Amino acid sequence: MSPYDSDPTDRLRADPVLAAAADGEDLAVDAALRPKLLDEFIGQERVREQLSVVLQAARKRGSTPDHVLLSGPPGLGKTTLSMIIAAELNAPIRITSGPAIQHAGDLAAILSSLTEGEVLFLDEIHRMSRPAEEMLYMAMEDFRVDVIVGKGPGATAIPLELPPFTLVGATTRAGLLPPPLRDRFGFTGHMEFYAPAELELVVHRSAALLDVEIDPVGAAEIAGRSRGTPRIANRLLRRVRDYAQVRHDGVITKEIAAQALRVYEVDERGLDRLDRAVLTALLKLFGGGPVGLSTLAVAVGEEAETVEEVAEPFLVREGLLARTPRGRIATAAAWRHLGLVPPV
């Protein structure tokens, strides 16, 4: 398990931009680019300010802070913030994920090995099994778990006291969390997509750490194609850096960034191959819709789940596609973006 992510493979599969280009070296670079303290974290001002107050108050009291829930789309910094929380508290951090906890015993083993003040980061917490989830209720509230010994009528519950710890849960689908679990978090922060100006700062900071020379217009070009997501901005920066070093003198300008991203099939609005394939099929094969999800997925040669969870959220957010009760339809902006004329 990498310190970068509880499940790097799942994260890469979920990233629609240049997933195939990221390897073990890229994951290590991503980890190096992570800010270590709240003051270094770019963007998410509201969440940062609220979290800063929570952590400072806990330090003044000499106690562990309330449990923290971070929600929002992938790539916005939930894992990074969890590590920052541990660093700000000068506490160790334990990293795991919801899918890795399939039995209550798995969770009990993790909780029983925690030390006082330790931070437990539970990624994709909404995917944890129900028995483990119910055990977590008591652990969060009373710092205690009941370990069941034996089976049937002779089974007994042995209470196990836990040292005070801070749970940091992260989820991309907060609506799937049951209310009893959600209510046990003392602080909930929702991560928003980044503005282009914030992503420019991310690109400049990462370029400095990577020792890459980049001009402001080149940084703006990369930021504008990064879908409001720092993880994608950093990944595009690395690919543009490679192109600049191989085909040019290593300096990233607007022209070089545009050339590089054209090679990697990322257009000026951040759409990648799958996004354009979905729009092209919707416009050319189905006249702009409406068309059902499964039919659209077959047309582009992908699984329906891939189209729905990877391509559609960005296309809807960009105003290029709309979901209706009758199916998916393209907007006027989609026709304009692909340079096509809608049927009369």
Automatic annotation (TrEMBL):
<feature type="binding site">
    <location>
        <position position="80"/>
    </location>
    <ligand>
        <name>ATP</name>
    </ligand>
</feature>
<comment type="similarity">
    <text>Belongs to the RuvB family.</text>
</comment>
<dbReference type="Pfam" id="PF05491">
    <property type="entry name" value="WHD_RuvB"/>
</dbReference>
<keyword id="KW-0067">ATP-binding</keyword>
<feature type="binding site">
    <location>
        <position position="79"/>
    </location>
    <ligand>
        <name>ATP</name>
    </ligand>
</feature>
<feature type="binding site">
    <location>
        <position position="34"/>
    </location>
    <ligand>
        <name>ATP</name>
    </ligand>
</feature>
<feature type="binding site">
    <location>
        <position position="323"/>
    </location>
    <ligand>
        <name>DNA</name>
    </ligand>
</feature>
<feature type="binding site">
    <location>
        <position position="328"/>
    </location>
    <ligand>
        <name>DNA</name>
    </ligand>
</feature>
<keyword id="KW-0347">Helicase</keyword>
<dbReference type="GO" id="GO:0004386">
    <property type="term" value="F:helicase activity"/>
</dbReference>
<keyword id="KW-0227">DNA damage</keyword>
<comment type="function">
    <text>The RuvA-RuvB-RuvC complex processes Holliday junction (HJ) DNA during genetic recombination and DNA repair, while the RuvA-RuvB complex plays an important role in the rescue of blocked DNA replication forks via replication fork reversal (RFR). RuvA specifically binds to HJ cruciform DNA, conferring on it an open structure. The RuvB hexamer acts as an ATP-dependent pump, pulling dsDNA into and through the RuvAB complex. RuvB forms 2 homohexamers on either side of HJ DNA bound by 1 or 2 RuvA tetramers; 4 subunits per hexamer contact DNA at a time.</text>
</comment>
<dbReference type="InterPro" id="IPR008824">
    <property type="entry name" value="RuvB-like_N"/>
</dbReference>
<keyword id="KW-0233">DNA recombination</keyword>
<feature type="binding site">
    <location>
        <position position="231"/>
    </location>
    <ligand>
        <name>ATP</name>
    </ligand>
</feature>
<feature type="binding site">
    <location>
        <position position="33"/>
    </location>
    <ligand>
        <name>ATP</name>
    </ligand>
</feature>
<feature type="binding site">
    <location>
        <position position="75"/>
    </location>
    <ligand>
        <name>ATP</name>
    </ligand>
</feature>
<dbReference type="InterPro" id="IPR027417">
    <property type="entry name" value="P-loop_NTPase"/>
</dbReference>
<feature type="domain" description="AAA+ ATPase">
    <location>
        <begin position="64"/>
        <end position="197"/>
    </location>
</feature>
<dbReference type="Pfam" id="PF17864">
    <property type="entry name" value="AAA_lid_4"/>
</dbReference>
<keyword id="KW-0234">DNA repair</keyword>
<keyword id="KW-0963">Cytoplasm</keyword>
<dbReference type="InterPro" id="IPR036390">
    <property type="entry name" value="WH_DNA-bd_sf"/>
</dbReference>
<protein>
    <recommendedName>
        <fullName>Holliday junction branch migration complex subunit RuvB</fullName>
        <ecNumber>3.6.4.-</ecNumber>
    </recommendedName>
</protein>
<keyword id="KW-0378">Hydrolase</keyword>
<dbReference type="InterPro" id="IPR008823">
    <property type="entry name" value="RuvB_wg_C"/>
</dbReference>
<keyword id="KW-0238">DNA-binding</keyword>
<dbReference type="InterPro" id="IPR003593">
    <property type="entry name" value="AAA+_ATPase"/>
</dbReference>
<feature type="region of interest" description="Head domain (RuvB-H)">
    <location>
        <begin position="268"/>
        <end position="344"/>
    </location>
</feature>
<feature type="binding site">
    <location>
        <position position="184"/>
    </location>
    <ligand>
        <name>ATP</name>
    </ligand>
</feature>
<feature type="binding site">
    <location>
        <begin position="141"/>
        <end position="143"/>
    </location>
    <ligand>
        <name>ATP</name>
    </ligand>
</feature>
<dbReference type="Pfam" id="PF05496">
    <property type="entry name" value="RuvB_N"/>
</dbReference>
<feature type="binding site">
    <location>
        <position position="79"/>
    </location>
    <ligand>
        <name>Mg(2+)</name>
    </ligand>
</feature>
<dbReference type="InterPro" id="IPR041445">
    <property type="entry name" value="AAA_lid_4"/>
</dbReference>
<keyword id="KW-0547">Nucleotide-binding</keyword>
<feature type="region of interest" description="Small ATPAse domain (RuvB-S)">
    <location>
        <begin position="195"/>
        <end position="265"/>
    </location>
</feature>
<feature type="binding site">
    <location>
        <position position="194"/>
    </location>
    <ligand>
        <name>ATP</name>
    </ligand>
</feature>
<comment type="subunit">
    <text>Homohexamer. Forms an RuvA(8)-RuvB(12)-Holliday junction (HJ) complex. HJ DNA is sandwiched between 2 RuvA tetramers; dsDNA enters through RuvA and exits via RuvB. An RuvB hexamer assembles on each DNA strand where it exits the tetramer. Each RuvB hexamer is contacted by two RuvA subunits (via domain III) on 2 adjacent RuvB subunits; this complex drives branch migration. In the full resolvosome a probable DNA-RuvA(4)-RuvB(12)-RuvC(2) complex forms which resolves the HJ.</text>
</comment>
<dbReference type="InterPro" id="IPR036388">
    <property type="entry name" value="WH-like_DNA-bd_sf"/>
</dbReference>
<feature type="binding site">
    <location>
        <position position="78"/>
    </location>
    <ligand>
        <name>ATP</name>
    </ligand>
</feature>
<dbReference type="InterPro" id="IPR004605">
    <property type="entry name" value="DNA_helicase_Holl-junc_RuvB"/>
</dbReference>
